[in-house]
Amino acid sequence: MSLTLDYSEKLESLLKQPLYGRLPAEQKVFVREVAFEHRFTFQEFRQVVEACRDLNMWGEEDLQCWWKGQISRTDLEGRQLKKHLLRQLQAHMQGLKSGPAVYPGETPGLPEPPRRNPVVSEKSDKKIFGPCPVASTKTICCNLYTIDAVDNCPLGCSYCTIQTFYQDKIVFDEDIAEKLKLITLNKNRFYHIGTGQSSDSLAWGNRNGILDAMFQFAEDHPNILLELKTKSRNIAYLLERDVPNNVVCSWSLNTPIIIQNEEHLTANLEERLQAARTLADKGIKVGFHFHPMIYYEGWERDYPDAARDLMERFGPQEVLFVSLGSLTLIKPVLKKIREVGRPTKILQTELVPDPHGKQTYPDEIKIKMFKAMDEALRPWREKVFIFLCMEK
Fold first, then answer.
1. Is the pLDDT of residue 213 over 80?
2. Which of 7, 305, 364, 373 is the most exposed place for a label (fewest CB within 10 A)?
3. Is the N-terminal amide bond of 292 cis, ω within 30° of 0?
4. Has this prediction a pTM greater than 0.70?
């Protein structure tokens, strides 16, 4: 009797884990029942809760059905049954991650409309300029510098690191124009400066005069290349005014199935390429990033197709660069993806630590994907600067 009472108290402590509280009501009841029945430890409870959440996000058979099916196929009882079930669960999850993810033909949709974060303008003592936050001697670095003019992004990409850095609001730096004027650059060197690390560079248009401030900064510093990186089609303001010659607009590209399933609220591939084409026709420099490349069933067809589509629409003389990079996730993003719980297959894959301890694909998968794109981009090899981003 005391053992039951003691475990009841422990179970109440386990049930306070945040991820458990985010499970659907029916699944919370099931997990609680099996945890009590088998006297789960903290790690065992966590394993089961994460598996329950992942199966839901991946669109696989739910844990309750799988669990009952396993019990029906064994005569084991007690501790032996618990060990068997947890071993089988681990093997089941590994099996689902052992090959490329399979996406549905149609978008799974969101379980609820994404919440719109409030947009505010605030004064801040935060430094806005510095080296790329992922720059490292452990990876090949393009020596990018970054300007953080807006904190947080209105787009809904499931894998995005930005979602873990900021509070549930979008903040414009009220003093951005003044801060840009205070940036000191060496006039004897060249700088590549990006603005898409803390938010999408074009999704806001010229809200709060942000593009006016950026263009003035570019005009004041002819020894920079200022990159506006986007997944939007919001180019109206750039068509209304002259854009400095040292500004390049770049688009993160992905395949239609990834855009549809993982890059919610962004422009689709056709819209991104058409927006880039429109700016190129005006004489504005453009660039492209196939980043992050996602490993899924059909990638070996879809990514080269997207590369060939790009080369059909643009001459190499119109494109400053093309970068390639694979999926890379920091631990807070893994946690955030499970907290949000929207349909996604980003975590349904084998991930290993990269040189910084982040999670990414094994080398053999990366090399295979980069080789396929290198071959697809062969006509541009000697004409366009093509490079790897955040790779060793």
1. yes
2. 364
3. yes
4. yes
